[in-house]
């Protein structure tokens, strides 16, 4: 086996009361003023004020940028960077799900590496560590609070740029299930399916290793056991807590084994149509796994086992099909749209979407390396 490198934040606080514990930890870092990067919903809900109050208690000041879009853009990063400079902030706090985390990573990278975020598209393009960043998570899905992945939409090209950079890893991540109780059903479902996609794509990735395998399989089991309960009963703290651990484990898996065609394709749908990332993943996942099962049926049998499917008397291919059927069943149970047509994707865009998907950094570790025609056929099957 080739050598593998494992990335994650040095400090990660997870579970009930994690937020208060994390702010106490921050006290020892010597920071003076935070730029809190969030969205208008969390700003209006009072969650940002709660964080500011906790910071003030340990003598840390804060400025707010709450202009993050659901798919953060190059303009969001530039706007946030301007506030960071004007307010002379010495670190960044992201508050929210993947969108504020990614926007904050973009701001923190630009603060130390130059103002143009699009210069950092691809793998490890920055020269300097980003401004220190603390990520406070409010969703159980993207794991952006603990990864080196930063996805920013380039508005001019209508493309989601995948920035995968060791310098974009936060120094501290926070997962407190009490901050996830208010998450609406649709967001809980979409982010949960994002985490399931992370764990399955990481498990069948060509860069998987024993550490990422262990994380991925445990994440799959926790998601199968808890996602439906978290969607249906948002204030079920046990389900929320288990989903926080699940998405974090899935993050540990894909942050180090990378992903595959589901994400490479979903990034294009998000960039072209401004769609929710987790929903795009959920719709594409069974179709991409159908394509990949020729090379990954043995691994998908292990995925099926992690989903509590009895695979004892099944062939690898039958077990792979059972895993795919279970994913479709879960998606339907939590009201994920049935296909891309329901998301208003257009058949005439498929050639361009496919071309850009093959250029996405996530496509490199897909177990079957397909042609443009192959990717077009997966998109067509998902329509």
Short description:
Keywords: NAD, Oxidoreductase. The chain has 383 residues and is of the alpha/beta class.
Give your account of this protein's structure.
The chain is an alpha/beta fold. The protein is built from 13 helices and nine strands. The protein has a six-stranded parallel beta sheet, sandwiched between helices. A three-stranded mixed beta sheet has the order 5-8-7. α7 (210-232) packs antiparallel against α8 (237-257), α9 packs antiparallel against α10 and α9 (261-273) packs across α12 (350-359). The longest helix has 30 residues, at 277-306. The radius of gyration is 20 Å and the shape is globular. The two termini are 38 Å apart.
Strand proportion: 5-15%
- Order of SSEs: EHEHHEHEHEEEEEHHHHHHHH
| End-to-end Cα distance | 38 Å
Rg, alpha carbons = 20 Å
Overall mean confidence score, pLDDT: 96
State the helix count: 13
Shape annotation? globular
GO molecular function, one term: L-threonine 3-dehydrogenase activity
Pfam family, one: Fe-ADH
EC number: 1.1.1.103
Protein name: L-threonine dehydrogenase
